[in-house]
Amino acid sequence: MMLRVLLLVLPLTVSGFSGAATPAMPDDVLSGLKQFRQAGEVSVDLGDGRQQALYEDAERARAEGRTDEAGRILAGMKEGYWAALGYLNLASDYAKSDLNPARALVALRVALAMSDGDADSERSQHLENNLLVRAGYLAYQHGEFDKAIGFLEKVDLDSFNTPRALYLHGLALTEKGNHRAAMQSWHRARKYPLAYPGVADAWIGMGRGYDLSGYLGQAGEAYLAANAAFESERVTLRKLAGKIREQGAYKTLVEDARETGVDWFLADSRTLTQPRMAYLLGFMEGPEAQRAAGRVVALRTMAAKLDRHGHDLQVFGGALEDKLAGMQNPFADQSKMDLSARGKDLSASLESLANQADPDQQARIRSLHKTLADTQARLEQVQARGSRQPETLDRLRREALALERRNEVLLSAVRQLLERCESALDKLALEYVEARDQQMAFALDKTEQQIAHLYEYLALQSLEETQP
Predict the structure, then answer these.
(1) Which of 265-269, 329-333, 420-424 has the highest mean pLDDT?
(2) Most buried of 23, 39, 141, 204, CB within 10 angstroms?
(3) What pLDDT is attached to residue 160?
(4) Which residues contact 268 (CB under 8 A, 6 or more apart)?
(5) How many other C-beta atoms can be found within 10 angstroms of the C-beta atom of residue 316?
C-alpha cells in the first residue's frame, strides 16, 4: 500500500517541481514514470523481490487472523512461486477452521494454477507436487476419495513427496474397497528408503491390506517383514548418529550423499549409504537446518579461498626474497663496476687515437666514441634503476608478509566460526536422527501390536474350531 501511495504522489511532485524557472522533464522520463505507476496499479511484474514483499504482507495478515485481507493481497499478485506459496498457506488456515473443505481445495487449485507461472521450473515442480499431496490428503480426510485419487496420481514418481502420495493413494483405494490396487501402491512405496515420509506407513499398510483381503497368513508375514525393516532402520540410524559424532554432519550427510549413486532408491537393500540422500532431503526440510548448512557451506568456501590466498602470498614472498638475494650478489656488482671502468678506459684510448689520426679516421673514431658514450649512459641507467629496484622489491616483500599475516588472522577467525557452525549443524542433525529413531520405534511398536492381535485372533479362531 505504501508503494502505491508513493506512485500516486510522485507524478504530482514532478509536475509541481517543473515550473517556469525549471526546464521540463524529458518525454522518455515522463513516459517511464507513467509506466512505473501503471505497473504498480495493474500488478505488472516488477521483479521477484516485489512479489516476495507482497507475499510477506499477506503472511503478516494471515498470522494476525485477517485471512480476508491476506486473500485480497494475494489476488493482486502476479502468478508465480510467491503467490502459489501464499495460497498454499491460506489453504492450510481454511482447512483448520472450516468443516467443509471447499474453500481450502479452491485455494489449493488456485495455488496450482499460480505455480505454473514460476520461471524456475524445478522449484515450480517441487511446489506443485507438494500442493497435489496436500489436496489429496484434504480430499481423503473429508471422504472425497475419487477426488483424492485424482490429485495423488498427478504427483511425479521422482519427487520427495512420492512415497507419501503412494501411501495416501492406497488409503483412498482401500476406502473404495479396492484392496489389491491399494497394496500395489504400498508395494511401490516400499521401494523407497524408510527415511521418506509415508514409507513406514506403507510397510504397515501391506499387512493391513492382506488382513482386509482375508489372507491372514500373508498378513502376518507382511507385519514380520515390516518389523524386520524397522529394526534394520534403527540400526542404520544408530550407525548414522555415530558417523555424525565422528566425522560431522556435513561430511556424513552432505558430502557422502554426493558420492552415492542414483540407483540407490530402486534397491531393496537397507545399507547405510543408500538412504543417505533421503535423510539429507528430510533433514533439509527444516528452515533452521537450511540456515545452519548454508552457514557451513559459506564458511568452508571462505576458508578454502583464504587458504589459497595464503599459499599464493607465501609463494610470492619467496620469489621476492630469491630475487633480492640475487640482486645483492657482490660478483654482479663487481661485474658492473668493471664494465664501467673498461668503458672509461676505451673512451680515453679513442680520444688519444683521434688526436693522431687523419680526418677520415677521425670521423670513424668519433662515431665509435659516440656509440661507446651511449653504451655507458645506458649502463649508468641500468645501475641507477638497479639501485632503486631492491628498495621496491623489499617494500613489496614487506607488504606481502603483512598481507600473509593478515590472511592468517582472518583464516583463523573463519575456522573458529566454522567449527562453531559445524557443531551447531551436528546438534541439529543428531536431533533429527533421534526423532527419526523415535518414529521407527513407534512404527515398530505398531507392527508388534498388529502381530499380537493377529496371533490372538488366530488362537481364538483355532479354539472355536476345536470346540464341539
Answers:
(1) 420-424
(2) 204
(3) 84
(4) 191
(5) 16
Separation CA 324–CA 336 (nearest Å): 17
- Is 147 within the bounds of a domain? yes
**CB neighbours of 321 closer than 8 A, spacing ≥ 6?**
397
The answer to whether residue 139 sits within a structural domain is: yes
First to last CA, the chain: 84
Which residues form the domain of 111?
49-156
Angle at 125 between CA 122 and CA 129, to 5 degrees: 145
Task: Please tell me the total count of domains within the chain.
Answer: 1
Q: How far is CA 25 from CA 20, 21, 30, in A?
A: 12, 12, 7
**Residue 393 clears pLDDT 80, i.e. is over it:** no
pLDDT of 28 higher than 60: no
Distance CA 86, CA 64 (A): 15
CA–CA dist 87, 75 (Å, integer) = 9
On the question of pLDDT at 67 being above 90, the answer is no
pTM above 0.90, yes or no: no
Residue 355: Cβ within 10 Å count: 8
The CATH number assigned to the domain holding 75 equals: 1.25.40
The residue assigned the cell 543417505 is 276
Tell me how many helices (H) and strands (E) the chain has: 18, 0
CB of 282 closer than 8 Å to CB of 196: yes
Phi, psi of 357 (to 5 degrees): -95, 165
Q: Is residue 399 part of a domain?
A: no
SS3 95: helix
SS3 content of the chain, % helix, strand, coil (to 5): 80, 0, 20
How many whole angstroms separate alpha carbon 268 and alpha carbon 225? 12
Closest CA to 172 of 195, 198, 147: 147
Give buried/exposed letters for 87-119 (b at 16+ CB in 10 A, else e). Answer: bbbbbbbbbeeeeebebbbebbebbbebbeebe
CB-count burial class (<10 Å; 0-12, 13-18, 19+) for 291: middle
Tell me what pLDDT residue 22 has.
35
The average confidence (pLDDT) of the chain is 78
How much of the chain exceeds pLDDT 90, in percent? 29
Mark out the alpha helices in 47-197 (DSSP H runs): 48-63, 67-75, 81-97, 102-115, 121-141, 145-152, 162-175, 179-189
**Residue 190 lies inside a defined structural domain of this protein:** no
